Each structure stands twice: as C-alpha cells, then as structure tokens.
Amino acid sequence: MKDNIIVKPGDVFSAGPHRFLCGDIEKDDVCKLLDIPKEIYMVYSDPPWNPGNARMWRTLSKRDGEIGRRVEWGDFVNIFCITVNLPQPDHIFIEMGVRQSSDFISSTTNIGFPQFKREWNVYYNYTHPNKLLYFSNIGGFTGNPEGLKNEPMTKYVFEHIYKQGEIVFDPCAGLGMTARMAHKFGMVFYGNELNPLRLKKTLLWMSKYYEIIKFTGR
Questions:
Q1: Across all residues in the chain, what is the average pLDDT?
Q2: Residue 1 above 70 pLDDT?
Q3: What is the edge-to-edge ordering of all strands in the sheet holding 12-15?
Q4: Which of 141, 154, 179, 213 is 20 to 30 A removed from 185 (C-alpha atoms)?
Q5: Chain mean position to CA 162
Q6: Going from the N-terminus, what domains does the chain have, and what CATH number goes with each?
Q7: Residue 86 parent element (H or E)
Q8: 3-state secondary structure (DSSP) of residue 44
Q9: Phi, psi dihedrals of residue 22, rounded to the nearest 5°
C-alpha cells in the first residue's frame, strides 16, 4: 500500500502504533472514530487561525463544493476546544494567530479546559508572527520557545515535555509535523486531518517506517 495510498473522507488508517483519521471536526466525532483513550498525555495542534484561513482549508479540501462556505469562527473554536479537551490531556499546546489568541483563550474558560499557563511569540513559515499557547492543570513545561520557527519550534517543545509511549493528539494534523515528532520521540500519535491530500503526504512519510493499514472508511 506504500505507493498507492488512497485517502477519502471518513477513512481511518494505522501506521504501527499511530492512528489517523480523514475527518471533519465540525461534523464528525473525531475522538470516537479514532478510538482515543481517556486521559492522554498531550495535545499539540496548529488549527486554522481565523475565519478566512478556516474557509480556505475547507475549500481546498472540497468538503463544501468548489467555493467553500463561511465558517462561523466562534462555533469552530468551541468545537475545536471541546475535541481537544475530550480525552483529558495533561498538556495542551496550540499554535494560534496573534489577533485570535486572546479570543481563543477566553473561549476555553467555559468548557472545563485546563488552566492557561502562558504564551510565546513564535513564527510560522519563518516570517509570519504567531502565538504558541500552553494550557495545563499540572504544569511542568520549563522550556522557552520564544522566537522559534516552524519545525525547530515544534521539536523544541517535544524535547522539553515528551514521554516515550505516551499519547499525543492533533485534531488538525495538517502535513503531519506533530506526527513526525511523535515518531521521533517515541510517542504514540492520534490525529485527524480534513484534507485527504495533506493526510496522504503524512501517510507516505510514515510508510518509510511502518506498514500503512486502512481499516475502516465510508
């Protein structure tokens, strides 16, 4: 299956201990479809940062036709936060746009989200200012990723928080940076990605190390 991976909405794949869903967090019960255990160790995710960004990814994924649809940002953030918090992670790291970070933090207060600890100024694509938000009820992250960019930033966070064999979850997995770090640091990845083509790229990368098994789909 290495060279002919076909990904469609609703498909679930395994790669060794890791599990991937091509799902839509606005419509699907992502945690149930992935069969994520309760009380996981960590979430690291880079969701859309604003309504336009969210609509762009829906349009590119062709989930709502060729021109996409308007995304109700407040509803999206609420669903994202509920999905992130459902498996009760000890640590949550979220990359978020500078303008949206305060709105995102305030959205977490009424859904039992872990305590907001702090934020750092970081970068996306090496030039775009961004925020990295950290939530936890137990704390323990002592790193300082201020000013870091892209893969070096994600790697730095994992270096200072990872536990081998523990689960890290990403409901907006993109091109699989969190999945790659989970593999590198001996963690178990559970992730969801809206866009079949982006998920396929992650699975192709994973196929260098694991057999890719598709075990359910619509």
A1: 89
A2: no
A3: 116-124, 128-136, 91-96, 42-45, 167-170, 188-192, 18-21, 12-15, 212-216
A4: 213
A5: 16
A6: 13-213 (3.40.50.150)
A7: none
A8: strand
A9: -95, 85
Instruction: Tell me how far apart the alpha carbons of residues 10 and 28 are, in angstroms, rounded to a whole number.
Output: 9
Is there a contact between 157 and 44 (Cβ–Cβ < 8 Å)? yes
Q: Which residues does residue 96 pair with via DSSP β-bridges, in sequence order?
A: 131
d(CA 38, CA 15): 21
Q: How far is CA 55 from the centre of its chain?
A: 17
- CA triple 167-173-177, angle to 5 deg: 80
Name residue, tokens 């936060």.
81
153-200 per-position pLDDT tens digit: 999 999 999 999 999 999 999 999 999 999 999 999 999 999 999 999
- Predicted pLDDT at 3: 63
Rounded to whole angstroms, the Cα distance separating 68 from 109 reads 30
Q: What share of the chain is helix, strand, coil (3-state, %, to 5)?
A: 30, 25, 45
The H or E element containing residue 106 is helix 101-107
Q: Is 22 exposed, middle or buried, given 0-12, 13-18 or 19+ CB atoms closer than 10 A? A: buried
- Our CA angle for 182, 185, 188, nearest 5°, is 40
